[in-house]
Design goal:
The protein has no helices and 32 strands. It is an all-beta fold. Strands 14, 15, 16, 17, 18, 19, 20 and 21 form an 8-stranded antiparallel beta sheet that branches. A 4-stranded antiparallel beta sheet has the order 3-2-1-4, with no helix packed on it. Strands 5-32-31-30 form a 4-stranded antiparallel beta sheet, with no helix packed on it. Strand 31 and strand 32 form a beta hairpin. The chain is globular. About 40% of the residues are buried.
Length: about 425
């Protein structure tokens, strides 16, 4: 992994017999493999001794993190997003709305007022970076000039009784809206879509055979929506609440089987631009996913199963292959380098797997492996051992990374090391 200080490796013959023809040998580490040069062993019997010398850097990856404090003195900041075009512009969500910085997080202004908007309720239009959608209460607002003029409420809104959980504007002009859908509603759980015209939102029900019989579940919660305009595909990650079966646990004790029992969650795909839906777990994904990312370069789809595995599909969600064992609640694909992921991890404690020990993690091989990138353990300012990173963002030039979380984390920033 570029930028990482690999340990030096030496191989020594096991005996000090100078009459043998044993010779010291060197070895190197590449792509996680220990590679030996030619080794000549003595004729009087042999063994191999390998010594790993300490890495030359102080941390697994040389990220120089700086705490930027609480944006506008707001300790309730819980997510961060980078502007898709302007590298110096950042947005953060807090209890009373959204703040904006136009100087890499040094100073802040109010961008939008609202009642604690969540990260998935604030979305950029992929066709126009000046157009942003945002949920306020149960209503959807839009700005077409980055709030230079007042936000306006969309003329068309969802029917009453639906709580919006996520917004996803598509490159074809469709706005997809995921909801928290109680089974007491007259309709089966589904998704709303709007084509941007004068007509209303259209509700598309999910087929009941597309996910496990709800049994004791009372609602379907849409976590995330993603689309692939090149193939007219739409993907959705959903969760039944409560999940079927009391034995399900997305965060199992590490001494137990690391794979939870799981259930056939409403992780769905549409091959018709959101008009019809079908299950895409295919016996592989064993619970709900909370992140879905489509690589615009080759249409590979990534699905992060909560608390467990990162999956990838190269055939539009038909078959899935497991990548890293890493249930990062925050996952970002670098827009300038499709081999590079950044993720935030759950809180650091001693009795959980390494990847759950807080901070930021990075992959440079398309999610096959992740390495710690800093902020693990007690945060130097907050010092809260239950701290975890819930949101990460990379600016438009891939020069800087930002991270934040719940419980008064504030905002952190680091330059992305050259050559990573």
């Amino acid at each position: 992994m570029g930028g990482r200080g690999h340990p030096a490796v030496r191989v020594r013959p096991p005996f000090a017999d100078t009459t043998s023809n044993s010779q010291p040998a060197t070895a190197s580490i590449a792509n996680g493999r220990l590679i030996f040069d030619t080794v000549v062993f003595g004729y009087d019997g042999y063994g191999i001794t390998v010594e790993l010398e300490p890495a030359t850097c102080d941390s697994p990856l040389p990220f120089a993190w700086v705490w930027l404090g609480y944006p506008d003195n707001e300790p309730s900041v819980s997510w961060v997003k980078a502007d898709p075009v302007q590298p110096e512009v950042l947005y953060v969500g807090y209890n009373d709305g959204v703040l904006v910085s136009e100087n890499y997080g040094l100073t802040w202004d109010v961008f939008a007022a609202g009642d604690w908007p969540q990260e998935d309720q604030f979305a950029f239009d992929p066709n126009d970076p000046d157009t942003i959608y945002m949920v306020v209460g149960s209503d959807i607002y839009v700005t077409h000039d980055k709030a230079q003029t007042p936000w306006t409420m969309l003329a068309e809104q969802l029917p009453e009784g639906y709580s919006i959980t996520t917004l996803h504007p598509s490159t074809d002009g469709t706005l997809y809206v995921g909801t928290f859908n109680p089974f007491t509603n007259p309709e089966d759980p589904g998704i709303f879509k709007w084509d941007g015209g004068p007509g209303p939102f259209v509700y598309v029900e999910f087929p009941t055979n597309a996910y496990e019989d709800p049994l004791n579940a009372t609602s379907l919660f849409t976590h995330v929506i993603a689309d692939d305009p090149a193939h007219d595909m739409v993907y959705l990650g959903g969760e039944l609440t409560p999940v079927p079966g009391s034995e399900y646990n997305p965060f199992p004790d590490p001494e137990d089987d690391p794979s939870p029992v799981g259930y056939d969650a409403p992780n769905l795909r549409s091959t018709s631009g959101g008009s019809t839906w079908e299950n895409m777990n295919n016996g592989s994904i064993s619970s709900h996913v909370t992140s879905l990312i489509v690589d615009p370069g080759d249409s590979r789809i990534y699905a992060a199963q909560e608390g467990s595995t990162l999956w990838a599909s190269d055939d539009l969600g038909v078959c899935w292959q497991p990548l890293a064992t890493a249930g990062y609640p925050a996952l970002v694909l670098d827009s300038n380098d499709n081999t590079r992921f950044f993720g935030g991890s759950w809180g650091p404690t001693d009795d959980v797997p390494e990847w759950k020990r807080g901070g930021v993690w990075v992959s440079t091989d398309r999610g096959a492996h992740f390495a710690a990138a800093g902020l693990q353990g007690d945060h130097p300012v907050v010092g809260d051992p239950s701290q975890y990173t819930t949101s990460v963002a990379v600016n438009s030039t891939s020069a800087r990374i930002y991270a934040t979380g719940y419980f008064g984390t504030g905002l952190w920033s680091a330059p992305i090391p050259a050559g990573l």
